[in-house]
Write a structure and sequence with these properties.
Blueprint (H helix, E strand, L loop, with lengths): L1 E6 L6 H13 L4 E6 L6 H7 L3 E4 L9 H12 L3 E5 L1 H11 L6 E4 L9 H10 L5 E4 L2 H9 L8 E3 L13 H10 L7 E6 L8 H11 L6 E6 L5 H10 L6 E5 L4 H6 L3 E4 L8 H9 L3 E4 L4 H4 L6 E4 L4 H12 L2 H14 L6 H13 L4
Parallel strand pairs: 1-2, 1-4, 2-3, 4-5, 5-6, 6-7, 8-9, 8-11, 9-10, 11-12, 12-13
Length: 364
């Protein structure tokens, strides 16, 4: 089987990381090519290392010329399956596949309900080109079916997942990472793993965290990730004299080690679908504080394995950070519950492997 993946970029993000894990599963058995609309990002080399050929279309601006380039790539590769992820990749793949006998799967990996009207209209207009549409979160699945009017028989829920071999609780990692980064055992470390973009609201998290420091002197906050907000956060940390409490770690590959050094995970996003970073934190057994967007309030049971707060409510977030800071027993209970709850997660890569086979055999 020949599988062609189309994605907007090969930068570091949830959709891109999902693609890498999917390619790891698919490439040993099939011929795989990845077409990135944008220039080659950090994950391009990783995709090559796990068996995929990678083509970058070097998209600039609106990138409408990429449709023709993508059509040429599809014609040259002659795939059995085209699988597109993220908005522009999906719409361009639909246009490139229109009127041709090509099996197309689309997976959004974003919350379409929060996007502008023209994006939702375009998605609705082109959705009929899909052979199968898959949603990585229940909120996206319901939105596609109920609002975008995707046909139920062609719309599937294939939830995001993380591999247990890559994310797991390890106390030795906690000790070595704390020593390496100059954190004491008694420090209570909050970690956020996300792109430093406005939609992730890293500034709101910094505001809430700074409020708790007078009452929580051993609290620490780590941002793992890079993005447009990095320099803004760096400036605010300096201006507020928070450098001894807040660490901008930048982009990191060993996410499991960083998660293991923390006591709790925080994702204060303005919009989400079902972020991989949250699933990774749960797999490590971290109590999680998340905003009430996308599938996050479905994934986190308030008071059991973490807390859910209204997006943008910095005061409530401060209260929840303080609660976890001062209650180690609660953190331990939440950790145990999270590990137990997530022990039976199904690998979505295997589900896609089965779906591809069913589509080829015309059973889906």
């Amino acid at each position: 089987m020949k599988v062609l993946y189309v994605i907007t970029s090969t930068d570091v993000g949830g959709a891109e990381k999902s693609l890498v894990e999917l390619v790891k599963t698919i490439s040993p058995l099939h011929t795989v090519r990845v077409v990135s609309l944008k220039h080659a990002g950090p994950l391009a080399e990783e995709l090559k290392s796990v068996g995929a050929s990678v083509v970058s279309l070097e998209m600039t601006g609106a990138g409408l010329g990429c449709v023709s380039k993508l059509s040429t790539e599809i014609k040259a590769f002659q795939p059995d399956i085209v699988h597109a992820m993220l908005f522009r990749a999906i719409e361009f793949a639909r246009l490139a596949c229109a009127g041709r006998n090509i099996k197309l799967i689309t997976t959004p990996h974003f919350d379409l309900s929060q996007k502008p009207l023209w994006m939702r209209w375009l998605d609705r207009a082109l959705k009929s080109i899909d052979t199968v549409s898959t949603a990585e979160s229940l909120s996206t699945y319901n939105y596609l079916r109920d609002i975008q009017r995707y046909p139920p028989q062609k719309t599937l829920f294939v939830g995001n997942s993380v591999k247990k071999s890559l994310f797991f609780k390890d106390n030795s990692m906690r000790q070595s990472m704390r020593k390496k980064n100059d954190f004491a055992d008694e420090d209570v470390v909050f970690i956020s793993v996300a792109r430093l973009a406005a939609v992730k609201n890293p500034q709101g998290l910094l505001n809430a965290f700074s409020k708790i420091l007078p009452a929580c002197p051993r609290a620490k906050l780590i941002y793992v990730g890079d993005g447009q907000q990095y320099s803004v956060l760096e400036k605010q940390i300096q201006e507020r004299n928070l450098s001894t409490h807040v660490l901008l770690a930048g982009e990191q590959k060993n996410i499991n080690e960083w998660l293991n050094m923390a006591d709790a995970f925080v994702l204060f996003s303005k919009e989400e679908s079902l972020p991989l970073a949250l699933l990774e934190a749960q797999q490590v057994g971290l109590p999680c504080i998340v905003s009430k967007v996308g599938d996050m309030p479905k994934q986190i049971e308030h008071g059991k394995d973490g807390f859910v707060c209204k997006s943008g409510d910095e005061m409530l977030l401060s209260c929840l950070l303080t609660e976890l800071y001062g209650n180690s027993t609660l953190r331990e209970k939440m950790s145990s519950y999270s590990l137990q709850k997530n022990a039976t997660i199904i690998d979505s890569s295997q589900q896609y492997q089965q779906l591809y086979q069913q589509i080829i055999e015309n059973k889906a």
